[in-house]
Every structure is written in C-alpha cells, then in structure tokens.
Amino acid sequence: MELTREQALALLQKYNKEPFHILHGLTVEGVMRWFAQELGYGDAVDFWGLCGLLHDVDFEMYPEEHCKKAPALLAEINASDAMVHAVCSHAYGSCSDVEPLHQMEKVMFAVDELTGLIGAAARMRPSKSVMDMELSSLKKKFKDKKFAAGCSRDVIREGAERLDWTLDDVMEKTILAMRSCEASVAEEYTKLCG
C-alpha cells in the first residue's frame, strides 16, 4: 500500500512538537519536490517530497540518536527501505554512516543545512521572504561564520561536491526551490502550528 502524505505528516507531528521542526520539514519537502521536477524525476516527486518531510522525524525527541531511531519510527507507517535509506543518509558523516548514493539523497544532503541558512537569511530581510533574495546576499551570509552558526558550511560544500555542482549552483537552485513553495509552506504551517 502506497504511503500517503497524511500518514507522513501525522508521524512527523507525533514526534515533533516544536513549530520550528514542523516548518523545517515542510520546507525541505517543498524544496525536494521542486528539485525532483527540475532534475527530471517528476514521476518520483511525491517520494522526494515525503523523504524531505520526514528527514528529521527523530531529531526533536531523540537528538542523541538522530538517524538511528528513524528506521523504527518510519516502520510505524511501513515506509519503504528506499525511504529509510534516504532519511538516514541525509546526515551522513555527522550522525549516520548511511551514505547518500541516489541523486535524491545527494540533493537532500546538500539542501538540508542550506534551507536553514536561507531561511535565517530571509528572516533578516525587510520582506522576511526569499522572493527578493539574491545569490550575492546569501553568499555574504554564508561567509559570515557567526550568522546561523548552526548551519554547517562544510556540509553544504560537501553536498555541492557530491552533486558535482558549484556552490553557487546549489545556492541559486535552493533559493528558487524555496521561492516555489514559500507561500504554500507558510499557509500549511499556519494551519498546523497557528
């Protein structure tokens, strides 16, 4: 039986109560859906999105076991082996030894930290939006190690390398991806978290 988005969202909400974590899951979902279309994986757009939605499912309740607890939680909704592998591979090298192999896994590895950085940069803008964000201003924030210090620049760089893209490419594409879903993410986030 095909996993539904409702099941995935219910699982995310079961293990994540912090609004920030819900917002991050929704954002990475939207970004992954955009990349699936952009990179020619349109037939797998739902799968890419659900992996993005659930990539941090175990992070809030089990931060010390991040990516180690995920398989058991994902089993509650009969997630496929491919989804479990994808979810566990997004934190390769920091808290997981599951390597991102598929194109989708490499994208998620690259954009997870980057969406956090872009989101933080957007909140500093007068518009509070990515809609008017330029690559040049994001690059300045990227170079400022004190800004959004929790977003690993090394992981973002490694993500670009794994994809064989330049850092500028990854940043520019991720800005576009976040623009594509900003309104729908904000709307759903408001419904879920008030």
Please explain how this structure is put together.
By secondary structure, this protein is mostly helical. The protein has one domain. It has helices spanning 5-15, 19-38, 45-54, 70-75, 81-89, 103-124, 135-143, 153-163, 167-193. The chain is globular and about 45 Å long. The mean pLDDT is 96.
Mean pLDDT metric: 96
Helices and strands, in N-to-C order? HHHHHHHHH
How many extended strands?
A: 0
Largest sheet: none
Count the DSSP helices.
Answer: 9
Q: Could you tell me the strand content as a percent range?
A: under 5%
Radius of gyration, in angstroms, nearest whole number: 15 Å
Q: How does the helix and strand content classify structurally? A: mainly alpha
Supply the number of structural domains. Answer: 1
Uncertain residue segments = none
Shape verdict: globular
As a percent range, the share of helical residues equals: 55-70%
Outline of this structure?
The chain is an all-alpha fold. 64% of the residues lie in helices and 0% in strands. It has one domain.
Question: Characteristics of this structure?
Answer:
mainly alpha, 194 residues
